[in-house]
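Could you join me in thinking about how sequence relates to backbone shape in a protein? Label the sequence line and the structure token line clearly, so we can match residues to local backbone shapes. Once you have written the record down, we can walk along the chain together.
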Amino acid sequence: MADTASKHIDMTTGSLWRNIPLFAFPVAATSILEQLSNLIATVIIGNFSGDQGTLAMAAVGSNVPLTSLMLNLFIGISLGSNVVIANAIGRNDQNMVKRAVHTSILMALAGFVVIALGEIFAEPMLAALNVPSETMPLASLYLRVFLLSMPSILLYNFEAAIFRSVGITRMPLQALAVSTVLNIGLDLIFVPVLHWGVAGVAIATAIAYTVSAATLFIRLLKTDSVVRVTLRDLAIDPVALKRIVKIGLPAGIQSAVFAVANIIIQSAINSLGTEVMAASSAAMSLEYVCYNLLNSFSQACTTFVGQNHGARQIDRCTKTLKVCLVEGGIVALTTIIVIVGLGREILSLFNSDPNIVSIGYIRVCSIFPAYAFSMFYENMSGYLRGFGISLTPALITMICVCGIRFYWVFCVFPHFRTFANIMMVYPISLGTTAFFMVVAVLLCHPARTYRATQAKATAR
């Protein structure tokens, strides 16, 4: 195969203004492709399910917070793999790189545990979301079938994290691009032709992710990069596992907290009826695309800082944050203008009902401008994680995001039961989180702390 090592992005030398976008945009494209399948599935479900179109859209949309909770936890842990491997590469510790890579692959087996628990508690979890009785059968069916894809989804994300740690970002994108085309093709067969409905969409997802995970695994077996996998070395290394979990678990909790908060909000949205659920589902699909675009700079920040921290290039770590904030800010502003400006037209692609489009646009106008706050705190979280500081941003997110949204749903919403009222909590919680994340970076100041520690060590 081609020399993949020559295609990696060198994070410790060269222009950050050039290399960070080279890293971030393929990561963004990969994340957007992951959501594209969901977007198209929502369109297909809404337009090719006959009289059940709106009901099927509501069933899929009501599952988004639950599936996000499961995925975000483990994808966050995979970010721990990214940081540990990147830092070891920066230190030129090839032994730790090898142990962390093989440990990461086996950690994807946790997906089978998720399947078992999810199959048992599918309906109770949906009931906790106040999913209406008319939506419950389809929502439960979708969730049970979707869970079968969890091992493949987790394996793909751990594999992608491994490649990104060494600066190889195009390979995960290429693998997912192929599986996305496959997913769309299967959706068009399973729903309009075979009439499998929501189950067909979930089956297509499982097949597509299995293909992408298998593709990356074969590439890891054949790559000439330092992250090459060999079957005989597949084992859980306790030291590597501890380091990955120490960084990844708080990152996973930070990501999962958003899902928990969204579960609380989804429960309130569900109480407003199927039509509001369908409109919110369509707008939510757009949000995930936007969020993943912005979050790619956070992932770039984490990986670049991780490698440069390992290589003891602390000034370059600080510059990485600045570059990510500037370039991420430009992307955020552009995205906000485009989506808000064309919001109604885009929403009409999901469902042509004017009322659903109008309700969905309320969500677009409430949430998308607030993504400017997301850009700030995600990049600062990534900066701290690159230095191995993962618990602090997780705690801030738990308190500011989950706490505020929990309070709003249970204390404010009951007095003003409107969709617009629920949406107000997003800019409030995101803005508060951004403020305290800035404070955390200023107080922790990892670059200054590192220099002080090195100065003391030198003095001794």
Notes: Residues 11-459 form one domain. Residues 53-90 form the longest helix (38 residues). Residues 1-6 have pLDDT under 50 and may be disordered.
